[in-house]
Write the structure tokens for this entry.
Amino acid sequence: MDPIKKEDRRVVNIRTADFTPITTHGTPDGAVLQLNEAKPLGHGFYIYKMEPGTTTVAHKHKGDEEFLILEGDLSDHDGVEYGPGDLVWLRDGTIHNSSTKNGCVIAVYAEAPEGS
């Protein structure tokens, strides 16, 4: 087998990489680290970071959303709380928003956020 070409691999560390701030409907809404530049930001697989004391904008996904809490705490609008190691699946069309007391880092797979 041939070695993988440099242009065919990207590697970053989630603790030292630069995250891209995102907005939803003109409102700041966390930050994303996504290596696949062929997909729009926030589509497919990415790492999502929320600062302490923040709440996401309510949103609905086209397609299922799956996420794994890597660090910190997260609560959905209905009071369900998640912590490190929790793997969450939300059905296509589910509307939610989330908040964090102490900040969090989440691995996400989402096909397409609302409005995309």
